[in-house]
Design goal:
By secondary structure, the chain is an alpha+beta fold. The chain has 7 helices and 9 strands. It is elongated.
Length: 310
Amino acid sequence: MNITEALKAENARLLEALKTKTFELEIEAALERVRAASMAMRDSSALSGIIYNLYGELTKLDAKLDRAFIMIVNPENKGITWWMAGQEGLLAENGFFVQMNPHPSHLMYLDYCKQRKKKWTYLFEGKEKRDWDRFGFSKTELAKLPEPIKAFMSDAKKVHLSGSSDQFGSLVTGSFEPLPEEQQEIISRFSITFNQAYIRFLDLQKAEAQVMEATKRASVDRVRAEIASMRTTSDLERIQPLIWNELKILNVPFIRCGVFIIDEEKQKILAFLSTPMENPWPHSACLIMLPNNPDKLLRTGSRSNCSKTT
């Protein structure tokens, strides 16, 4: 080999190495974008945008895909919620629950999730696919999919599934031709990235639920302490604004609430209506006459029916 040929071979090797390095940087950038979107997730509805972005990132990396799915497994009832994206763009409604069923593909998803199998393929065709299409598009929430999407998915004679399973469930892609090994490896990396963010999301949800539960208990304790200090029913006039504020702290939607003390013998109600502490209604304690018809009891409880009591 002369010098010219040696230089050409070296240039070709360097160009190939540069191409490989550039592609790896593109993968890392795509993973980081998916990671950032997943880390920003605050509720499960964000999964629709995440799978849409993930599908876009995979196709930019030369994956010849028809569709991509994030399948979230419910370990308690063995159902799976499908979040999907395809060429039709961002779906207006997403997150379709598929209940536990005996179809082989559903059992396969559950098994691979249990194993946390990082890389797998599955050929979906023939009678199995036809049986699933009839069941899935009529007996599960997949029936809510737009008709053109259901028709397109049903018309496919066979679909090559490539997936990666982890604690959350599976990241699955569907294509009309089998994906090469390097694309399957990329899918596995995306699955690991998403799983890390999703576990963090679940931890945040759990922590937020614990904080909310602690807040509820503290609110109840504050109201209980005030009630314990009551000596007469008139004390409710100072307790009712506290109830109002505690309900607001807990983000309970309401416009009015109160305590109604019913005296059936005298056919009267003593009503204590909640008001905010900073804007109390001076006639919060009201005396309301009971009507003869008990069904119309609360209809007489308007402000105009109230009289100041002592």
